[in-house]
Structure formats: structure tokens, C-alpha cells
Specification:
Elements lengths: L2 E7 L2 E7 L5 E4 L6 H14 L4 E4 L12 E6 L5 E6 L5 E4 L6 H14 L4 E5 L2
Parallel strand pairs: 1-8, 4-5
Antiparallel strand pairs: 1-2, 2-3, 5-6, 6-7
């Protein structure tokens, strides 16, 4: 089972969504408080299973409504995704993947793990 690892950093509080094997599959922005970070995790929990897919690496891709996973290529040419909530806010982002298939697997892992993920506090 996955988990939201809540962590205090120099500039605030963030979470990493980890798969059952401990791999980080998505990361949040840095929030100003633990409360707002927990709300962000709750938003990922709620939106990930119902989010549509917008593949921005395809020519003439179709824009879909939020909530959605956006797949794109970064400056280094790696595939990444970001999860947007209904209001269009980015609530989680991925690491860079060399292969698009790995990025898509990451999205599926978020869909699967987020709804049941427990919340745990972690120290550095």
C-alpha cells in the first residue's frame, strides 16, 4: 500500500507519494503549513482516480478538463506528468522518465496508490 510521506523542509512542508515498494511516484509543492500540505494530499487522493489524461507529447493533442494528468517533455527531453485538481492547480508532479511508458506507469501507480495511501510523518 502507498503512503503520503509528510516532510518539513527549510521553506515549509511537502509530501512525497510513495508506492508500496517505497519508490517516490509523485511530489507536492512546498506548502506553508502542515494543514495545507494535508489538504494537498487529500486533493491528490480524491482527484487521481478520476483524472483524465492529456498527452502533450502528441501532435495536436486534445485538451481535456480538470482534474487531469498532463504528460509532457521537459527541457532535458524526459517525460514527466503533473496532476491538476478541478481548479487547475498543480497538486503533484513526477520525476523525469527516459521512456514514455515508464511515465504512464507512474500515472497508473498514482491512480492506484493515492486513494488508500496512509499519511506518515518522516524526518530527514
Amino acid at each position: 500500500m502507498g503512503k503520503f510521506a509528510i516532510k518539513t523542509v527549510k521553506t515549509g512542508v511537502k509530501f512525497d507519494l510513495k508506492a508500496g515498494n517505497g519508490e517516490v511516484i509523485a511530489t507536492s509543492e512546498v506548502y506553508t503549513s502542515r494543514t495545507s500540505c494535508l489538504k494537498g494530499a487529500e486533493s491528490v487522493r480524491k482527484n487521481a482516480p478520476i483524472a483524465k489524461l492529456e498527452d502533450q507529447t502528441e501532435d495536436g493533442f486534445e485538451t481535456v478538463t480538470n482534474p487531469k494528468f498532463e504528460v509532457y517533455k521537459d527541457k532535458a527531453g524526459e517525460f514527466r506528468f503533473r496532476l491538476k485538481a478541478r481548479n487547475g492547480e498543480i497538486i503533484a508532479v513526477s520525476e523525469g522518465y527516459k521512456a514514455k511508458a515508464s511515465c504512464m506507469n507512474g500515472i497508473e501507480s498514482v491512480r492506484k496508490n493515492a486513494p488508500e495511501a496512509e499519511i506518515v510523518d518522516v524526518e530527514d
